[in-house]
Amino acid sequence: MPRTKLAATPASGSQPDAAGASAGLSRTMETQIRVAGAEHAQSRRFLDRVSWAIVLVLGAMAIDMWGAPYAQHAKLPRLLAAIQITFLLEFFALIALVVLLRMRLASNLRRDAAQQAVLTQQNERLTGQNDELAQQTELLQEQAVELEGYAAELENRALELNRANGVLQESERRQHALADELRLLTRRLGAGQKAAHLGYWEIDYGSGAKFWSHEMYDLWGVPRRAAPPSMADVVDFLHPEDQQRFRRVMKRALTERVEFTELYRLIRPDGEVRTLQAQGRVVVEGDGPGKLIGTVQDVTDRMQLETQLRQAQKMDAIGKLAGGVAHDFNNILTVIEGYANLLASAGTLEGADRDAIKEILEASHRAAALTRQLLAFSRQQVLQPRLLDVNEAIAGVERMLRRLIGENIEFVTKMQPSIDMVMADPGQVEQVLLNLAVNARDAMPHGGVLEIETANVVLGEMDAKNHRVRTPGPHVMLSVTDTGSGIAPELLDRIFEPFFTTKESGKGTGLGLATVHGIVQQSGGHCSVASEPGRGTTFSVYLPSRAGERDVAGESGQEDRPTLHGDETILFVEDDSSLRTMACAVLRGAGYEVIEASDGLEALRLCGDASVEMDLVISDMVMPVMDGRDLATHVQRLRPGVRTLLMSGYTRDALVHNPDQNPAAWFLEKPFTPDALQRKVREVLDRPNTPEAA
What we know:
- By secondary structure, the protein is of the alpha/beta class.
- The chain has helices spanning about 20-75, 75-125, 130-195, 215-220, 230-235, 240-255, 300-345, 350-375, 390-405, 425-440, 460-465, 510-520, 575-590, 600-610, 630-640, 675-685; strands at about 200-205, 210, 260-265, 275-285, 290-300, 385-390, 410-415, 420-425, 450-460, 475-480, 525-530, 535-545, 570-575, 595, 615-620, 645-650, 665-670.
- The strands form four sheets. Strands 2-1-5-4-3 form a five-stranded antiparallel sheet, sandwiched between helices.
- A hairpin with a 5-residue loop joins strand 11 and strand 12 (about 535-545).
- Helix 7 packs antiparallel against helix 8 (about 350-375), helix 7 (about 300-345) packs across helix 13 (about 575-590) and helix 8 (about 350-375) crosses helix 12 (about 510-520).
- The radius of gyration is 51 Å and the shape is elongated.
- About 25% of the residues are buried.
């Protein structure tokens, strides 16, 4: 505000006449009136501005009072804190404005009263003495000083207003920053919902209004519209078997206001079926009717992984059961087959008795084949892998396969030249081919085409995920394709389960494909199936490639057949008393001195007795307290020159004839015949002390 300063009156020594003094005083009064009018107008404008400032502050306080509950409900602590700080600043600003207004009004009242008194005195002095002009001049000078002080006060208040304006601008800047942060959080929330396939929805109890997030439209596979689809349209997208349950759950949630978590199958417009997990709960704000809010998440991939996990756990449990049964059954078969061979080799049986023994041996052979299938499924059979050319393996059994499938089925091979080598047991690969060929033949009772194909393939990360291959990389693919009846989609997940078959009763044991699965898994590969009812089936086997390697395991020439008798001392360790009795009888019949032990601890005690001589320790692999591998390790420590021959029908963890694990152990697979036992014992005793497998 501009300052108003009055000039001092002349000294009393040079006073003008009364008329001049009156005229000068009149002009001075006119000047003062104009100044007072200007100050009055200026004060009025100031009062108007302060009034509007009070109105704006009150409006801002009302907005903050409205926004605070919303921020508290929306759980936005930063916005709530900003509102509270702003409200406090506005409250102090309001107090300052009221104090300023009161001071201005008081000042104006004082000024008006003073001016009124001055005007009265001046009117009286117009008719009075000239000496009163000097007093009036002094009074005017005093008023000028007061006006200067008032101007200085106005300047100070202007500075305060500028500072308040700066605080307001800073508050606005913070509000803009909070708004930007809120928009950023909103974008991040949307991105997180999209990444998690999580949609958000609302249904207002009072108005019935609905809200869908963008991800809801994407989950349903429909274009984003201004309003969400009706409840009837939502139900139409669901699987028919889930629609009634959905209506029942939503009705109960809307009427009884209860929370829910449900799984539904959604059929998208493109025909894809997805599994959704829907959750909802009631939210009540104040005295209003409230809202039903919830989320919908696509859990299709998670459900598929859980199904695969359950299937793998089930297969593993069945495999453990099959392996345990086969192990115990192998002991029984070894006893049956051993005594039957002893009776057959005795030469005292004739006629019907000899035929009965042959039938017993034939039945034991079939039972042994069955246990081998069980062990193959459970990946516990003993393999003798070597580097193998799959094309050569197919060529070796091609003639047998042609006879096996019959003349009404066309046999086609598509073998890639220069196929990579794989590490596998040749006999087991042939078993895989035979089982797949028999399965294909049975699917084409009226004829068709059976095609065997080989190829070098490279499985990437995505292939490894889809096929559940252990490691991606180069593989050799062996596929068997038929043009038969195919397999229903709902049966594909169970096709490799043991004892599961789609064939008629009496036409299949359900172990063929389970055996294929076990052999391939134990060889480090994977097998998959693709089928369509009425259009045939393709079984594909993937074995890790061993390109660039060559088979150096084979030996040239044949060794002389060893004699089956001897006079060495053998420690025979077996917890099955029947099998131990039979085997010891066979060995004693061959001339050996046999010491029996029922478990590993007893055998260990005998090994520690220096008075007990022994040349060979024969031990079962699976025994209570101490297994055969641990016993072999202790034997090598206590009796360095004594060799160890381990027996078992299966090995779950690793091959027992692995030199890294058992430095001087040979292996004999159960069930074995007396002749096989005698040959293996003689082989172990006659060869140099270098580990070999049976």
